[in-house]
Amino acid sequence: MAIAYTITASEPVNQQIYRFLRREIVTCEIPPGALLSEKEISVRFTVSRQPVREAFIKLSEAGLVEIRPQRGTYVRKISARRVADGRFIREAVESAVVRRAANEITPQFLMRLDHNIEMQKLAAAQQDSQGFLQLDDEFHSLIAQSIDCTLAWETVENIKATMDRVRYLTLAEVSPPEELINEHQRILAAIKAGDADGAEGAIRRHLQTLIFSLTPIAERNDDWFEED
Predict the structure, then answer these.
(1) pTM for this structure?
(2) What residues contact 224, with CB distance under 8 A and at least 6 apart?
(3) Which of 16, 79, 80, 210 is paired with 103 by a 20 to 30 Å CA distance?
(4) To 5 degrees, how large is the angle CA 92–CA 98–CA 100?
(5) Which domains does the chain have, with CATH numbers?
């Protein structure tokens, strides 16, 4: 059953609908291949069709849906090629970020990263998958903030929507939270030590985990993946 979201006046309606639908697509609550009804979603959120249409366009730009004229809007199946390409770009960006962080990070941000990891452990213990993935993103975002380069994380966010679906599918079995937490701790330890080479190596290994887990997940959910 779909979660009931409340539209507020705090930001544009189309952005809120985009964010809600993105979350449901990423967590596969709305599965790959599903038809999205503009009318049903407008009724669900009690809004006109225009902001829903605008949200669909943003989802299309993120690679999550395909708008087929006269046929409807469908959730795109997962493309292994797009996942691999997105990971390659993300690895290049975040490798540069952690190298700078190892030389520039302040004690304040180190404390925030330590706190984030403790919250990750709590989410893992409570088996809160969505909460854990949000904290995972926050960890990487904080590192970019620590070098005053939030654009780096914004760039990553714009390309990782397809990756996020695989992250969610792999979390329970292939990439358990406990292992991801260990990887985050290794990244942070290298940053604390001022070891730029070690931080870069740790984040590269961390991001490559996704590719290693892609094949077994695709085999288990072959109808959710495109034939690249």
Answers:
(1) 0.81
(2) 28, 31, 32, 33, 77, 78
(3) 210
(4) 105
(5) 13-75 (1.10.10.10), 80-224 (1.20.120.530)
The token duo for 121 is 């452990």
Please tell me the predicted confidence (pLDDT) of residue 1. 42
Q: What is the greatest pairwise CA distance in the chain?
A: 58
DSSP letters of 120-175?
HHHHHHTT-HHHHHHHHHHHHHHHHHHTT-HHHHHHHHHH-HHHHHHHHHHTTTTS
Number of other residues whose CB lies within 10 A of the CB of residue 215: 11
Structure tokens at 109: 């941000």
Count Cβ atoms within 10 A of the Cβ of residue 115 and give its class: 0-12 exposed, 13-18 middle, 19 or more buried.
Answer: exposed
Query: Span 123-149, mean pLDDT?
Result: 94
Model pLDDT, residue 6: 75
- pLDDT given for residue 222 in this prediction: 80
Closest to 59 measured CA to CA, from 84, 90, 40, 34: 34
What count of residues does the chain have?
Answer: 228
Structural contact between residues 104 and 147, judged by C-beta atoms closer than 8 angstroms: yes
